[in-house]
Amino acid sequence: MEHKHKLVAAESSQARGTCPNYIIDRLSNLPDEVAHQMLSFLNFKELIRVGSVSKRCRELFLSTPSLVICSPDSGNKQKHLNLLDSFDRFLLHRGDSKIQRLSVSWCISSGLANKIFRMITWIHIAARCNVEVLDFALNGKHIPGTLELPACIFLCGSLRSLLVHMDTILKAPSFTCSSNLQCLTLKSVTMDEGFCKWISSSCKCIKKLQLSYVSIENITIESSSLESFSLVGSSLRGVHLCHLNISCEKLVDIHIEFYKFDSSSKSMNIFAPNLKYLTWIGSILNYHNLGKLTCLEKAEIFLKRKKDDYDFEKIFEALFREGSMQLQFYDISYLSLHAGGVFDDLVPAMVSLLRGMPNLKTLHINSYPRFFGSKSCKFNRKYWKSQNLDFVHRLEEVKIELSNGYNGVEFARYILDHAQNLKKMVIHYPPQQSYVERRLSKSKMISTTSIDYQKRDLHKLKNWSESGTYYRYMIRGKSA
Question: Among residues 47, 114, 121, 249, which is most buried (max CB within 10 A)?
Answer without folding.
Answer: 47
